[in-house]
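Fold in tokens:
===
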Amino acid sequence: MNKELFARNLRIHAQLYELLKEFSRAGIEVILLKGIALIELFPDYMHEREMEDMDLLIKPSKIKKVREIIKALGYKKAPLDPDAYYREGTLAAIDITDALWYLSTEENADLWKHSLKIPVQSAVSDVFYLNPVDFYIHVQAHARIHHAKNDEKWQKDLAILKEKFKDNLTDTGLDIWIQKYGLSKALSVSVTDIPRIGHISRFAFLPLKKKMIYLFKAIFPSNDFLLNRYDLKNVFEITLYRFSRPFLLFLETFKLSLSFISKSEKKNA
């Protein structure tokens, strides 16, 4: 038993409930994702699971209000991620999203229909986790596609899910949904075979239709996204960044490519 890790996770648990109480007062539903969902579902896992952030899925109509609540609690936006927040004196960052990147709008809506309630304290309501199949696929996609790592932490997460939901997580059942989401190719490639970097790898491995939608949303995001991403103040700034966005994306992609090439050359030297 790792008492230090358990004590740390208890503090993160308290940090989470501070947030959930405010969400509950505002009538906001939330789906807990990945590690934070696992330690809330299975408290014994608090002795093993190291936590760096709390991943929360919010309905698109509520994301603006959630940002306001988070900021009102003293959190600040992380410099390199517009939907990650941190607060001095707390142990875990907050990472919010209004959609899982590999799903269509309709598939994301279905997540909420099939999500399951987490038993919570009486002061909190409307807290959910993904159904077992979506939970498992999401951890896989995050590890193998977004990070391209077989990190031990995520392998343990997958093992816990298989153990706790063995009747739901048959290989055949998982394969059906992996194919439906268009992730078969991405999840069948060894993470050591092809270099992948974050959002670039997401785009590269999505099926064609989702690839086009992903690209369109990246180049032409909503006004709310631009306001939050670049801390804009008025319509003129939104218009300016809307025209600048494609060039900013191209520059960032070019910098990432150079960085990867440089690291590869050093590795092979």
The mean pLDDT is 85. Residues 235-268 form the longest helix (34 residues).
